Amino acid sequence: MKNQSKVENISGMHSSGITNLIKILFWTLLLAIILKSFFVEAYRIPSSSMEKTLLAGDFIFVNKAAYSISTPRYIPILGTKINSFDIVTFSKPSRGDVIVFEFPENMEGNKIRTANYVKRVIGLPGDTVEIINNFVYVNGRTFLEDDRHLSEKKKEVTTDNKIFSNKNYWNGKDYGPVIIPWKGLSVEVNFKNINKIGPLINREYEKNVVSIEGSVINIDRKPVRTYTFKQDHYFVMGDNRKISMDSRHWGFIPENLIIGKAEIIYWSMDPDLSVIKSIRFGRLFKTIN
Predict the structure, then answer these.
(1) Beta strands, E only, 155-285
(2) 258 is a domain residue
(3) 255, 234 in Cβ contact below 8 A?
(4) Residue 120: predicted pLDDT
(5) Span 272-287, mean pLDDT?
(6) Which structural domain, as residue segments, surrounds residue 173?
(7) Rounded CA gap, 140 and 154, in Å?
(8) Is 19 among the domain residues?
(9) What secondary structure does DSSP assign to 13-34, as a single string?
(10) Is 172 exposed, middle or buried (0-12, 13-18, 19+ CB in 10 A)?
(11) Number of domains the chain contains
(12) CA-CA 20 to 30 A from 151: which of 4, 52, 95, 110?
């Protein structure tokens, strides 16, 4: 009887140990989901579009609470998209911030977003951005790469109060001028600008709502002649401008697509070298400016 009692006690201890382990795993997983959903997320840099600020093979932490704390846009683990809203707002992105955002073109055709990009904020809502022979001008002042601020020298800005200029030919070296939309800005919608404004409207609704029926332009099945933007927008570029695909190619970033601010490089490996030689020790725990 005494031996039987010992066996029963050991069995009870074993069951209790498994229960405690399950509890630890559950709370650890829950904490990880909360941190990833609301506060911080890790990303790997796959390309050189942000050199020399970020190199291919850098692993970074993104502060998702840098600007606001929002409800998740996707159900954790499942990845199913859900409606999201800001719980509390702290600040807005500043010119020169390095941000991570959802690639805006992934929603075209109602596709699920799978790609996140990292770029530098060049233009803020209401700014006028123009690129002339690779020189970036914001509100007529040169955007200085090294100091991340605007020069004192100013050029004349002429946009006729339109978001897009009448220039038909833009490329990576010459672009604009464009006015970056802000929340509450009302613009005319017509057949001259619908090809440029249409994608911006679709991004705000996060689905295709712009349609054309004969001589009528519809937004969400309603005929319109004007549109009022519901969000602030931002103009972003890669530091390595010659190879970067950015706002010059696919337009402005609405605020709802911004995930957070890139803060620190926690690990870095050169993808072209062997594992032992690839570790860039000088980049570990480097802040991102």
Answers:
(1) 175-179, 186-188, 210-213, 216-219, 222-223, 226-228, 233-237, 253-254, 258-268
(2) no
(3) yes
(4) 97
(5) 95
(6) 128-179
(7) 5
(8) no
(9) HHHHHHHHHHHHHHHHHHHHHH
(10) middle
(11) 1
(12) 52
